[in-house]
């Protein structure tokens, strides 16, 4: 009876130890993609044939950032092992249709090859149907989407429910990606907030800048400084003048 109990315990211990050893070796899909595609919901295949062997304690991750104007989207995608993060799926709609769209999806998981998402149909499809249903407003905006810089930005009519033009850049780094995106188009988002203030997407770091905005802000700032100093100088000059006048008035 006692011996039997001991054997059970030993078996449990051995099973426990072997699952521990198995858990230490994790394989994940590995790959990156950066590009612009028409109709990504139906054309993009995210499967990677490459395999990465992870260090102890790692997870698999797959992360994608999609920036779209109409049916065209810039895709920045990465799959790899990851030593940061906890098992979770995160889906964020940073900017929604109509107008410019920014969406991110990231999946951290702990089973072998669990970062195996193939398509984007359920992430991206909802965007297109929404866009088609709307008419256009009288507003027109320069519109473009490019890796690096836009070569041209034709002025296009804006869909209903958009009321301003956006112009900005996203610098995406880490996660084996190092790219700059230029984006122009119609939107209803206010300010330089296409990412809605989210700058970490899975392993990716995203820096958003809107050059026109910051340049004009700087102009106003330095103008104000100049104004202040000139007023201050004028006051000093006046005081000096009064002092001189006062001095000469009280003189002989
Ligand atoms: C994506 O590519 C993989 C292999 O490259 C293939 O097995 C799979 O069927 C493709 N998926 C789609 C939806 O085309
Ligand atoms: C779009 O805007 C136009 C002009 O403002 C308006 O006539 C039209 O009804 C709107 N369409 C929708 C679907 O809201």
From TrEMBL:
It comes from the Eukaryota. One of its GO terms (cellular component) is plasma membrane raft. This is UPAR/Ly6 domain-containing protein. Pfam families: UPAR_LY6 (PF00021). GO terms for biological process: cell-cell adhesion via plasma-membrane adhesion molecules; cell-cell junction maintenance; leukocyte cell-cell adhesion; positive regulation of neutrophil degranulation; regulation of integrin-mediated signaling pathway. It is found in: Cell membrane. Its main location: membrane. Residues 138-214 form the UPAR/Ly6 domain. InterPro entries: Fert-Immune_med_protein, LY6_UPA_recep-like, Snake_toxin-like_sf. Residues 1-23 form the signal peptide. CDD domains: TFP_LU_ECD_TEX101_rpt1. Keywords: Cell membrane, Glycoprotein, Membrane, Signal. Gene3D superfamilies: CD59.
């Amino acid at each position: 009876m006692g011996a039997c109990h001991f054997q059970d315990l030993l078996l449990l211990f051995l099973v426990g130890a072997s699952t521990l050893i198995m858990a230490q070796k994790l394989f994940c899909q590995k790959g990156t993609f950066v590009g612009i595609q028409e109709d990504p919901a139906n054309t993009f295949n995210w499967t990677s044939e490459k395999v990465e062997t992870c260090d102890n304690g790692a997870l698999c991750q797959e992360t994608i950032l999609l920036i779209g104007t109409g049916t065209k989207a810039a895709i920045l995608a990465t799959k790899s092992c990851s030593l940061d993060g906890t098992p979770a799926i995160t889906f964020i709609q940073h900017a929604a249709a109509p107008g410019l769209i920014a969406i991110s999806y990231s999946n951290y998981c702990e089973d072998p090859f669990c970062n195996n998402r193939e398509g984007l149909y359920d992430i991206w499809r909802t965007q297109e149907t929404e866009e088609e249903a709307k008419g256009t407003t009288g507003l027109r905006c320069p519109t473009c989407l490019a890796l690096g810089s836009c070569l041209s930005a034709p002025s296009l009519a804006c869909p209903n429910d958009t009321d301003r033009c956006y112009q900005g850049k996203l610098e995406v780094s880490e996660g084996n990606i190092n790219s700059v995106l230029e984006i122009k188009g119609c939107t209803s988002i206010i300010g330089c907030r296409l990412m809605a203030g989210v700058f970490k997407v899975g392993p990716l770091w995203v820096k958003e800048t809107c050059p026109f905005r910051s340049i004009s802000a700087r102009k106003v700032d330095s103008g104000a400084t100049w104004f202040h100093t000139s007023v201050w100088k004028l006051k000093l000059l006046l005081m000096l003048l009064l002092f001189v006048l006062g001095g000469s008035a009280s003189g002989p």
